[in-house]
Amino acid sequence: MSTLGAVAATGGMRFSIDPWDPSYGTSVADDGFKESTAKIEAGVEEAPSAWRPVPLPAARGRLVAAPDAVLFVDGVRREDARGWIDDLAPADTRATSAAPAVCASFASGVVCSCALGAHLLTARVERGLFTPARHAGDITTLAGTYRVRPVTDDGPNGLNLAIQQAMTTLEISIAAGARHGHATVPGADGQVWPGPDGVAGSAPDDSFADGPAWPSDAEAQPVPGDPFAAGPTGPWPRQRLAEHPTDQPGGAAPDRSALLIVDGPLRGRTHMPRTLGFIKTHHSRYLEPPQHEVVGRLQPGERTPVFMMGTNWDRFTWYLRLPSRPGAPWAGVARIECPASLPAADAIGLADLSQVVLPRFASHEFKDGRAPQNLYPIAGLERALRRRLGDRQLMYRSLRRAAGGAIG
């Protein structure tokens, strides 16, 4: 099964063409869903027998406070060169064996989308020499220093896993400080949002020029004939705050603090408040058939009820369909997760908030090869981070020079 767009029928056979660029694969594993051993508790929000698509909050009479800002965290990685670290040998003798090594660059950053637009808050680049050779040291080149990062797994995927772990660790560090990297919307206190270099008032990074921040009310009105309209009510009219926040527990004021979106699972970041993990691709089938079928019935903007998933860590999770062209049952579906440490009511509140926030950032096919799941701010962040990795050929030639080898 694959997640496909544009449906057609020929001789009674219905088929679709996947909207994702083939170089990215598909949003559902090419060999279909693999059976999962995860422990699932489907009755968090609704009894399993009562599962049905959950409409937009407004359609249920619930007013959801849109956050003042949405922060997106992501990372990128690149192998600059592969090589070998010679085993130690006596002086004036040649080594007869060597350990594999990879020189890699990786980066992580945060994009803020607020009333002033989408802009880069912070970005950090690191370079590493990944190898199981215990005597390895840093490699200093004209283009940067590759800090040695010992690899303990000598299996065939050990180096790749070590690079991924290093990037994840950097993402966690960046995400932990994300909320400290921005100020409030300009007001009486004169505070402003920092620009891409962390300097107040800097011009926005042009990586995000093609992606929306918060749409205006005019932009949110239905467009006649728009194939991406979210059903009979059109696209995503902005959810307004209740004049009297009666749907807030205890009559508390609605929470409009920044919402943090992590591209990928929330593992290692479950301690962060107001944080969602955003999973674009699906490899495993977690739900029993009756609940699994609900995902295929979702309309744009609708979600499944919240359920609990337990693997080597626990989290609340749900499926959400983003606005997209009609297609196969799982076209435009993303899985969202939040920490299991939250009260169930808070997790359900975040699920409602995801319906209000995330569809606004869904990409379109003509702009992104992984539409609609590759959200515009994340796509812009990936481009900005890749530029900051530096020219790959320059890095390779610098490594060759440092190794004393010929330069091709």
Q: What would you note in describing this structure?
A:
With 408 residues, the chain is of the alpha/beta class. Among the domains are: 7-63 and 281-373, no CATH class; 75-87 and 97-180 and 190-200 and 382-403, no CATH class. It is built from five helices and 15 strands. The chain has helices spanning 158-176, 289-296, 344-357, 376-388, 392-403; strands at 7-10, 13-16, 34-35, 39-41, 70-86, 98-114, 117-131, 139-141, 144-150, 259-263, 275-279, 284-285, 307-310, 314-321, 333-339. Strands 4-13-14-15-11-10-5-6-7-9-8 form an eleven-stranded mixed sheet, sandwiched between helices. The chain has a two-stranded antiparallel sheet with strand order 1-2. A hairpin with a 2-residue loop joins strand 6 and strand 7 (117-131). It is elongated, with a radius of gyration of 24 Å. The relative contact order is 0.20. Mean pLDDT is 77; it is low at 1-7 and 183-250.
* Structural class designation: alpha/beta
Following the backbone from N to C, one meets helices and strands in this order, namely EEEEEEEEEHEEEHEEEHHH
Helical amount among residues, as a percent range?
Answer: 10-25%
Beta-strand residue fraction: 25-35%
Q: Could you state the oligomeric state of the chains shown?
A: single chain
Distance between the termini: 45 Å
Distinct helical segment count? 5
- Give the total of beta strands: 15
Average pLDDT works out at 77
Q: Write down the Rg.
A: 24 Å
Largest sheet: 11 strands, mixed
Q: Are there runs of 5+ residues with pLDDT below 50, and where?
A: 1-7, 183-250
Shape type: elongated
Adjacency order of strands in the biggest sheet:
4-13-14-15-11-10-5-6-7-9-8
